[in-house]
Amino acid sequence: MDKRLTRSDFMFILVFIFMLIFALGAFFVGMKVGTDRTELKYADLVKLKREERAGLTAYHQSYLVSFYHTVYLPFREFNLVWSQDMEKIENESSSTDFSSLFKSLSKLANDKYEAMVNQTMPEISPLLAEAHDEYLRSLKLFSQAADSMESKANRLAPDALLSEINKDAYFGEAKNYALAAQKNYFDAIVLWHQSMDSTAKGIDAISGEISFNGWSALSLNLKNAYIAGLLAQDKLFLDVTPQDVSLGIDEMIRSGQDKKLNAANVPQAVEILIDSRAVRQGDFVKSKAKFYSGELLPQLPFFSKME
């Protein structure tokens, strides 16, 4: 005897099928959400692993370029304004409102600080992370010191004001942090060079006083790192870059001026160049093709265009 399904049986089956479809849909949606959250959580780690598999290093060019635009360049812009303002004081311009000048410097330093404070450096690039922190400390101190100098700037004669600036502990520390940051950045460029050329010499090749013969055997990246170290050691906070100074030394050697000036080694040559103001901002870019056409350099703007 046939037993037909009742209407309620059909309804039960349909409800069961809908519930099964809904459960399967909820399962796949939940799995997709869980996967997305996991991928998001480990995105940085996945990216790092991919870069490692692709042969990227702790000081890959992309990290150097990112640092240049987000950290180095904002500080460099402050550095150039600082140098221009110090030149105004040195030239004893009677039309310059020195208090206003320091007010503007304080604001500019603070603005640059705010522009870079939230930037992050890769954890695998400690030199860049340290340079970032040092530039931030430098800007904070420059801002505080300029703010303090504002109230008395107009009461001092230009030469007395320069003396106050030069002996101010906060300005001194601000410059030291900036020079240390610059050294770390150029050391990082040397490590990039080594990642591109396994036979390239490292930082240990530029310790102590380097002779002119030793200098000529160095890559440009090592020369620049050595100069950055000398500037930090001698506390020379300038508007020229390490590569501008390197170019000055190579010009001195090629022209034979090192012998005429009785410079015994590279540190002495640097001292002569700086004291005589023979190095100018942008020298490197103008003469790069003449001296360094075959050099391996990262694609950073200050190696290819005027500031």
Helices, strands, pairings?
Elements: H1 7-41, H2 43-53, H3 61-90, H4 98-116, H5 126-153, H6 158-167, H7 169-196, H8 212-216, H9 220-233, H10 242-255, H11 257-260, H12 266-275, H13 283-291
Helix pairs in contact: 3-4, 3-5, 4-5, 5-7, 7-9, 9-10, 10-12, 10-13
**Cα gyration radius (Å):** 29 Å
Distance between the termini: 98 Å
Which percent range fits the helix content?
Answer: over 70%
- What overall geometry do the principal axes of the alpha carbons give? elongated
Oligomer: single chain
Helix/sheet category: mainly alpha
| Portion in beta strands | under 5%
Low-confidence stretches: 50-55
Summarize the helix and strand pattern as letters.
HHHHHHHHHHHHH
Mean pLDDT: 88
Number of helices: 13
Outline the biggest β-sheet: none
How many beta-strand segments?
0
Could you please describe the fold and organization of this structure?
This protein is an all-alpha fold and 307 residues long. It is built from 13 helices and no strands. Helix 5 runs antiparallel to helix 7 and helix 10 (242-255) crosses helix 13 (283-291). The longest helix is centred in the N-terminal third of the chain and has 35 residues, at 7-41. It is elongated and about 115 Å long. The N and C termini lie far apart (98 Å).
Summarize the structure.
This protein is mostly helical and 307 residues long. 71% of the residues lie in helices and 0% in strands.
What features would you highlight for this structure?
elongated; mainly alpha
